[in-house]
Design brief:
single chain; mainly alpha; about 70% helix
Length: about 260
């Protein structure tokens, strides 16, 4: 029984070892496939191109510096030295033109890549927006499923009825009691309007009185001080000691 149990297991292990050796030998002969690197994104390509453009800009600036030095030297040189400096300056100028051509090409390439990157980002934003709108649509359907238009209308009708009942109760609570017979609300309102007219007339009359006139005394009038008795000279004077005017006879003209 032990031999019959270990027989399939032994065969499985034997063939497993054979297969491992076979794959190991094939790997040594033909080699193993390397894992593929992820493709560069547009952002990575744009950054790499920016670095290349920066290098070309530095080279152009270096050529400008060399041309400036050669120009200063040619201003002082004569004869064969001047010809040699001109030849060197022409070489530097050719190199600068080559760099400028490369710079223009890379800038055009950079512009195209930026356009593609912008379009790609716009598409991703659109996909995100559509996904969010779909999710919002599902949530709004769930929310509207919990609300019925008829329930809202019934609630508004109930609120309107309750407000009307409340106003009617307030009018009932505002009624007056204990008024004499024959007195009506309309009569009271007419009398109130007459009082308002009297108050307006009184206020307009007071407004017509000049402000420079003294106001009427409100208290009891006090008796004025009696006139003083005539002095021994026989002329009557008032309380201030001034002679009183006598009505008898016309006043004599002053000389």
């Amino acid at each position: 029984s032990t031999q019959s149990t270990w027989g399939p297991y032994t065969a499985f292990c034997f063939w497993g070892v054979i297969l491992l050796k076979f794959f190991s030998t094939m790997r040594r002969l033909f080699g193993s496939s390397k894992p593929k690197e992820p493709a560069p994104s547009m952002a990575d390509a744009t950054r790499a191109l920016d670095g290349r453009v920066g290098v070309v800009d530095e080279r152009i600036a270096k050529c400008d510096q060399e041309l400036k030095q050669y120009k200063e030297q040619m201003a002082k040189a004569r004869g064969p030295a001047l010809a040699s400096l001109k030849q060197r300056a022409l070489t530097v100028l050719k190199r600068k033109k080559m760099y400028e051509s490369q710079q223009d090409a890379m800038r055009n390439q950079q512009f195209s890549m930026e356009q593609v990157q912008f379009a790609h980002e716009s598409m991703r934003d659109t996909v995100t927006t559509v996904s969010a709108m779909k999710q919002a649509n599902v949530e709004m359907k769930k929310t509207f499923g919990q609300i019925k238009i008829t329930d809202v209308e019934n609630m508004q009708d109930d609120l309107e009825d309750m407000m009307m009942d409340s106003n009617e109760i307030q009018e009932l609570m505002g009624r007056s009691y204990g008024l004499p017979d024959g007195v009506d609300e309309a009569d009271l309102e007419a009398e109130l309007a007459g009082l308002e007219d009297d108050l307006e007339l009184e206020s307009s009359t007071q407004a017509d009185i000049p402000t420079y006139l003294p106001s009427a005394p409100t208290g009891a009038l006090e008796p004025s001080a009696p006139a003083r008795q005539a002095e021994p000279t026989g002329v009557a004077v008032d309380e201030f000691g001034l002679p009183l005017a006598t009505p008898s006879g016309p006043m004599k003209a002053r000389r």
